[in-house]
Specification:
This protein has about 450 residues and is of the alpha+beta class. The chain is built from 14 helices and 20 strands. The structure holds one RNA strand of 73 nucleotides.
Amino acid sequence: MARVDDEPPPDVVVAGRLVGLRRMGGTSFAQLRDGSGEVQLFLNQQSLGQVAYRHALEVLDVGDFVSAGGPLFRTRTAEPSVRVERLQVAAKALRPLPAKWHGLHDAETRFRQRYLDILANDDVRRRFEARTSIVSALRRVLDDHGFLEVETPTLQPVYGGGAATPFVTTYAALNRDYYLRIADELYLKRLLVAGYERVYEICKNFRNEGIDSSHCPEFTMLECYQAFADLGDMRELAQQLVAAAAEAACGTRQIQFDDRVLDFTPPWRRVTYRDALLASTRVDLERDGSTSALKDAAKANEIPVDPSWSRAKLLDELMKTLVEPTFVQPTFLERYPTETAPLAKRCPDDPRYIERFEVFVNGMEMANAYTELNDPLEQRARMEEQASARYGADATPVDEDFLLALEHGMPPAGGLGLGVDRLVMALAGVTNIREVILFPQLRDRS
RNA sequence: GGGCUGGUAGCUCAGUUGGCAGAGCAGCGGACUUUUAAUCCGAAGGUCGUGGGUUCGAGACCCACCCGGCCCA
């Protein structure tokens, strides 16, 4: 490879985007950038020829892609430069780049024209590179553990694996409504039935619900399932995945986030659901966890209560409002009440609880894991309960095809879901999920 | 859905008690043969988010709406 101080001066060809142009009469300087860095072009009447030189200045604009050839040398100020003897415009820019020194700050334009945001703002460009490193690190950990990466349907005839409103679409060839997946859990479990013992998928899920700083209707989830494993194995795996992601993105497990440091070094804190609720609301699920006790607690904390809410919904609201925001450092919330999730196995010592944890960071849910329910009879009962009117708007349909698979025998297993966007948020130190999604959807301007 | 806040030139932003719409950068014209946020001279650039209203006069005040941001539900 040619070096700038080689003798004789090596003849090189460079190409990239013009990001600066200083016209100074008979000599001009241009700044050329590509993915690897920048180099200065030295444009001069003598080396380029009078006609070509004049034409170049006429036609060149900042933003153009150009290729240039000529000897590599240093200018008087020792700046490595190409003395341009041949010049070609490879692509013309018709619109100007965002102001070089003021950048692009308007949030709306940054989201609507992300390419300009990435072009103008180094921190944004690096953040999306970090996102890719994080996803690679997650894959590496799972691949190293012998997990098989698979692809399952995005379009599903029955939605399941979570409680959410789906996007509905029409599958013309099959002449019926289909749903964009809200989760891929039930398909990955079918693969456990099939005999694959470790599977995972990183995919987009779609939930037709609100948009705010931590929710995007189209988001990325990692789900993995491991046969003959339990919640304790998932706890280990979650810590390993996140620690590896942190090191990949930041080179450390201690992440500066605003004025605090998030420490992802295992082991993370563990709190039981009952203890957390008790500490924040003085509701003790062991003494009086009735619907009316939960309603009283909600009212006492100025949470507006819809009379139609189920006990599960009340619990969720209390936890969301009073408990979860208090978990700043990575925390496992464990031993959930049984009605909070129909797909998790009950605790062997107490059927009122399930073997489930969620991980919270910065007050935000980041992961969810169970020892998976693999008893087809209980699964049917729990799904039918979840489908009943008592769950109102949160009711989810019974997936008969999934139950059929379970009836053929699913090995005991642990399963883990990890919200990739939220993991990236925590590691990148941003508080809006749109900052980690390349092309977030916005309302039409007009 | 509620509260707060923003939308002015391509970009970043000013705009005072209501009185001719501003700056820097970019762009355009000119000078300049070693600059690097080049410099200097000149000219130009506007549906002040949209629609109403108040007023002799509205970018500013009032009402409604559109599109964002932050917080809350």
